[in-house]
Design goal:
heterodimer, A: 265 residues, two-stranded antiparallel sheet, 15 strands, 28% strand, B: 326 residues, alpha/beta, Rossmann fold, nine-stranded mixed beta sheet, five-stranded parallel beta sheet, 9 helices
Chain lengths: 265, 326
Amino acid sequence: MRIVVCLKQIIDPELPSSQFKIDPGSKRQQPNGHPLVISPYDENALELALQLRDQTAGHVTVLSVGQSSAVSALRKGVAMGADEAALISDPALEGSDAFGIAAALAQGIQKLGPPDLVLCGCESGDWADRIIGPILAEALGIPCVTYVARAEKHNGHVRAQRVVEEGYEIWEVTPPLLLTILSHESNVPRYPKVKDIMTASRRPISTWSLSDIGLDTGHVGNAVTRVEIQELTLPTRESRCEFLEGEPGGQVASLITKLREKKVI
Amino acid sequence: MGGIFVFAKVENGVPSRSTLELLGGAQKIAAGLEEPVTAGLLGQGDAALLYAYGVETVYRVDHPLLKEYQADLHLLALERIGRTAEPRVILLPGDSLGRDLAGRLAFRLQTGIVTEVIDIDVHPSEKSLRFTRQAYGGKAIAAIVPKAFPVVATLKPRTFDPAARAGDRTGTEIPVEAPLDGAQAGTRLVERVQEETTGVKLEDAQVVISGGRGLGGPEGFDLLVELARVLKGAVGSSRAATDAGWVPSSMQVGQTGKTVSPDLYIAVGISGATQHVAGISGAKTIVAINTDPEASIFKVAHLGIVGDYKAILPPLIARCRELVGG
């Protein structure tokens, strides 16, 4: 089974709000040297890919669109166990929306050779648009199941557990297909071993420009976005927490009083 | 042609809650845009139920293959309706349906998309649209303007007030032909499993008590269930508790789980990751109980108790029981 996992490198989303700064020019978060990580659900997707590969024979490629720094995200993917890695990086991609990124990913996937399974995180840890996976599936012309907690091979098909409001659904799909992956107890990302981190750090990572993947610059970049971020601001609400002191009994008594004042109980 | 198009669902003789929220969003901008509200129905729901909320035109695809949800077939029908209605805005719910269909619909209509919208405004003179959404897990607020039409937008659940009935009105129904074929379905449903716990629905509850990793194990939820029972509320969880397998994912509150907007939200043993906090921004009063005074949940809580939930919850349950009983 040939699996491609799409990884996005983002600024650590758990960075405290006090260190969160907006770059007014790009209308994005200022990097300011903050730690860069693989967007959380993308790691769950990679973990699932590695498990599916290990059940039978297979090949896992991690693919990213981003700046040269994203090589470190791909190296982590290799250290976790991916067989191959490729980065699509080109100045023309700057400011692309989901359609531009998906076009680049689709071309990169074509270059890698036809996959059986493409995995994406269900949403990114920064903008959480939740649309890259479905749009990429459209660009590749393959079926898509979103918000999948677990997936397994089943008689030549893939069975995917899709989480919905009331519970879950099991969908059966014949490859090739794309799944967007949610975290689940079954796909907690493995920690790479020190030895594998060392090996991965010496691995050359293929970096492709748009011309390497045969994508015209007219499909990507800020000029062809279909929506525009007009403004990015900090939210005004920053409530001050009132701490209730004392022994548990006193804390509970104060809490009851406060909640009754607010008429919520 | 224009118009604000709402993808509607009618269940058990009433528009679904998410449909009413979409209609609420549509009503908010209809006057400013000076354009009508239209809707799409798949299957056989009663269009008159939508006219009563100010919908002027209902586009319907009625086909036996649309009886059960299947993404590819629903998408084909919706795409057909979109091309027929040619609206300015297409509103979809930001729930599992919108997550499945919205991006793909925008791709097919070669248009723009904004997801998880929390507000929409119309510029008074230019009549242009502006969408507001959270970014970076709620650490920032983005104003987004469309550059291509019709723009697809998904509305964050439990954010827009449900539409009010506009009284007895009539409208026009336009049947839309969609040549559907079972072979167009790329996925096949094997099983649908309901996980909803008994009692008040999490999204509807006025009181929500959620537990996280700090509970230490699934048995910690017993106290939460008891408090919820006394306060007639519902029990939720953080992603950490769901990922640990302590409770089903249908109980998860947060960006990838459910959005709740209760009067009272009690977070027990929840650190307050951005992922979780994004789902509770509509809660009126947030109480946090955590042993760690530095936990980020206290940054969003109104009332905080630093302490062990095992010491706090039993007297809290007892006091609440007295109040409710007497």
